[in-house]
């Protein structure tokens, strides 16, 4: 099960943008990498602090936002 709680919003990090688990990696950073055809494996290799579940949570967060949640 994907945990949306992996996405955090803190006013003092990345200008209050949604980030992953309090890290300075934003949801939009991950989605941009995916849009640029980076694979999940490449992202995880470049950012070892991330987990596959973090990427999946970004998709869920984006889907919820697109549907007005």
TrEMBL record:
Pfam families xref list: DUF433 (PF04255)
Gene3D superfamilies given in the database record: Winged helix-like DNA-binding domain superfamily/Winged helix DNA-binding domain
Signal peptide: none
SUPFAM superfamilies referenced in this protein's UniProt entry, alphabetically: Homeodomain-like
PANTHER family, per the entry: SSL5025 PROTEIN (PTHR34849), SSR2962 PROTEIN (PTHR34849:SF3)
Protein name: DUF433 domain-containing protein
Organism of this sequence: Candidatus Proximibacter danicus
Source species taxonomy: Bacteria, Pseudomonadati, Pseudomonadota, Betaproteobacteria, Candidatus Proximibacter
